[in-house]
Amino acid sequence: MSAALDLITRVRGVRGAMLVSADDGLVVAEQLMEGIKGGAVAALAASLAGRLRRAMEAAGIGVSVFWHLQGERGALLVVPGTSAGGILVVAVAEPDVNIGLVRLELLRAAEMVV
Amino acid sequence: MADDVRALSAQLAQDPHSLVFLRLGEALRRKGQLDAAARVAVNGLERHPHLADAHDLYARILTDKHDYEKAFDEWDMTVRIAPNHTGALKGLAFLYFKVGDLTQAEAHLDLAQRIEPDDPSIAQAIAMVRGGAAPPSPAAPPEAPATPTAPTAPTAAAPSPASLDESRVFAGLEGANEGLLLIDGAGRVLGGALKDKSGTDVTDAVAAYLAGVSQEAARTAKLLGLGAWSGLSAEGQHGNVHLSHPTPEALLLVVRDRGVPLGRLAILAQRATTMARRWLERET
Hints:
The complex is a heterodimer. By secondary structure, chain A is an alpha+beta fold. Helix content of chain A is 39%, strand content 31%. In chain A, strand 1 and strand 2 (27-32) form a beta hairpin. Chain B has two domains: 2-153, Alpha Horseshoe (Serine Threonine Protein Phosphatase 5, Tetratricopeptide repeat); 161-283, Dynein light chain 2a, cytoplasmic (Beta-Lactamase). In chain B, helix 2 packs antiparallel against helix 3 and helix 7 packs antiparallel against helix 8. The interface between A and B is large, with 32 and 40 residues.
């Protein structure tokens, strides 16, 4: 699991990466810079993932493969769900991070933790 | 003209990577063979996706086919690649006029005039816009205008002020009636509509779920120290979505199939957000 998180945290601009249980929002593994509260990230990411999943299913788009919340001072990037056996692979990043690169590493990490 | 098409087709067959497709597409367009012209333009775009003139050609063909939403997208792409492309600026001005946005129409023509100050057709188009008449469609060949000007003026076509305003929320955007949804903070629909793959209207169901997503996104961004959230992009199994909030209370969803990459979807969403914000400001 540590190797999976290494893939993500080595990308420039990533402040932390985590594996989160999608069902209960608890931390499974984490590599975070100081100041990031793992428990809060896990709970909020899982909650938002659940709401987003329901909206996307209602729209007929199916389950999400990747999502990305952009804020003024940073971004939350997530590869959710089924491909990782109910585990969310989560990254917290600077606002100017290379999103395409983080997405690729999140997907690779998700394959590793299945 | 038929000889032109034959000769150009032969040239293109000989060298499929050449830019002769631009002349062939235009020749077919002028002959009114719009499906054939569109095929030529699309094939050309596949080989030259960053060629501004190719997007301009396709936009003119789409305008002739009255597919104004896609034409807008193509001209928009043209000016992203070549900001001084006066043909595209005139095209966008024409489309803005058609949806009643005279300010944008005139702004695009003004920009075109700054780039080509000696082009009398631009000055003429500006005068027409100021006088309330539609500027000539850039798609129409000079000798045989394809689009009559007066009947396309939005003031002549408007059925009522209320329905006109609603239809303009996303006017000019691709898929405005099927893949865009604007809701208020309580999940009530303000504009747009959504259909699933089978064509079933899922507008109300999605709107209800989205109200929760918006609040959750705002809470998550705040608690994680990300500041105010500006957008949420998601890649699904059968499509991509982008969420944004034109005003603190409203939420805008843009849905497209997976063929539209998230980056392009974000650009489209940004444009829709601006339009929605303007509309909301006018309404309140």
